[in-house]
Amino acid sequence: MVRDAVRRVVAAENDVNDEWHATMNGPIDPSRDQDDPLLTLARQHDVASNAELALMSVDEPFLSDGEAWAWLSTLQVALRATAYAHGLVNQERVAAADVEVRAQIETLQLLLFAIADVV
Fold first, then answer.
1. What CA–CA distance (Å, rounded) separates 50 from 73?
2. pLDDT tens digit string along 81-110?
3. Residue 53 is assigned to a structural domain of this protein
4. pLDDT in tens, 1-27
5. 79 within a domain of the structure (yes/no)
């Protein structure tokens, strides 16, 4: 699942028609930097760099701190993009979502919490 999520982030970063692409480069807090192209460019570079490092290390038995950070960052992007693509903007919509989508989101959340505990 991690491999698929990371590959999807890498693919979506390069494909403007991918449903995940729009969520990948939007500001976390639109009131802070939506009009600043330098911050947007820096965020795009970070997403791409982290996703590529996560993809390169996906088969490693152990992760360095940098690789763990890349996984954390990339899986956060994957979680956000998955939720956005399925319109899961509140608990009611999450509860009404397909079982497979909910399982994917819950697994990503668990992985993120586990990685955050060690990073």
1. 7
2. 999 889 998 889 988 999 999 999 999 999
3. yes
4. 889 999 999 888 888 888 888 777 665
5. yes
